[in-house]
Amino acid sequence: MRIKGKTASYLQKLIDEGQPIHFSLIDPDKVKDLEGLGRVASSLYRAGTSAFLIGGTLGVSKEKLDGIIHVLQDFRIPKIIFPSNINLISEKADAILFMSLLNSDDLYYVIGAQVSASIIVKTIGLEPIPTGYLIVGHGGTAAHIGRARVVPYDNPELAVAYALAAEYMGMEYLYLEAGSGAPETVRPEMVKFVSKYSNINLIVGGGIRTPERAVELVRAGAKAIVTGNVIESDIERAIKIIEAMQRVYKIE
Ligand code: 1GP
C-alpha cells in the first residue's frame, strides 16, 4: 500500500477529526506585488486556513510560481501546487495535487501531462496527492483549456459515476470544480449525493464567495473548500468564510 506523505497525512488528520479543510488558492498570474501577497497570506494564516494552493490556468511561469512559494514559506502550513500543466512543478512546494482531468476529451489532460510530469515529481521529491479533477457546470477557463465535457450542475448521478470510478482507481480526492469565478458554485445537492454514494474525499471550488455557501457545501459532505477570487477581491469576506467553517467544526 502507498504510504501517505507528510501533507497527505496532515490533510487526512483534519478529515479524521471532522475538521473542514479550507484551501486558500493563490493564482500567480493575479498577484501584483509580493509584499501585498505576504500581508494577505498572513491574514489567511491567522484566520486558520488549512493550506495554500498555488495555481492558475493561464500566465503562470516557473519563476512566478517559485516567487510566490518563497513568500508563503513564512507560514507553517502546506504549500500545495494545483497544476494546470507541466510548467507548474516546483521543488519548493510541499506537495502537488497530482490530478487527472477525468471529463476531458483530450488524452493529454487525462494521462499525457501526468506521464510527462511523473519522473520530474519523483526526482525532485515532491509529494503527489492522487486527485481526480471533475469540471462541473460553468467550468470557466479550466473547462475551455482542458476540453472538458462538463457535468451539468443538475446531474448528480453523472458526478457519482465519476466519483466511484476515481475511487475504484485509487484516487484519494475528487475535486469538483465549477471554474474560477463561476457565477454558480457546484450545488450542495450534488455534493450530498456524491458523498452518499462514494467514499472519495470531496474538494469543492469555483465561485464560492459567501460563508453561507461554504458552510452549506461542508454540511453537504465536502471535506475541503477552495476559495480563490474572493481572496483577491475581498479578503475580509475570505476570512469570514474560514471562520464560519471553523464554527461548523466546533458546533457539530
Ligand atoms: C478555481 O476552484 C477554484 O480553480 C477557485 O475558484 O476563484 O471562484 O474561488 P474561485
Structural commentary:
This protein is α/β, with parallel strands linked by helices. The protein is built from ten helices and eight strands. It has helices at 6-16, 34-47, 62-72, 107-124, 140-145, 156-168, 188-197, 211-220, 229-233, 235-251; strands at residues 21-26, 51-54, 79-81, 95-101, 127-135, 173-177, 201-205, 224-227. It is globular, with a radius of gyration of 17 Å. It has an eight-stranded parallel β-barrel, surrounded by six helices. Bound molecules: SN-glycerol-1-phosphate.
Notable traits:
252 residues; alpha/beta; eight-stranded parallel beta barrel; 8 strands; 17% strand; binds SN-glycerol-1-phosphate
Task: Set out the fold topology.
Elements: H1 6-16, E1 21-26, H2 34-47, E2 51-54, H3 62-72, E3 79-81, E4 95-101, H4 107-124, E5 127-135, H5 140-145, H6 156-168, E6 173-177, H7 188-197, E7 201-205, H8 211-220, E8 224-227, H9 229-233, H10 235-251
Parallel strand pairs: 1-2, 1-8, 2-3, 3-4, 4-5, 5-6, 6-7, 7-8
Helix pairs in contact: 2-3, 2-10, 6-7, 7-8, 8-10
The site of SN-glycerol-1-phosphate has 14 residues, from strand 8 and helix 9.
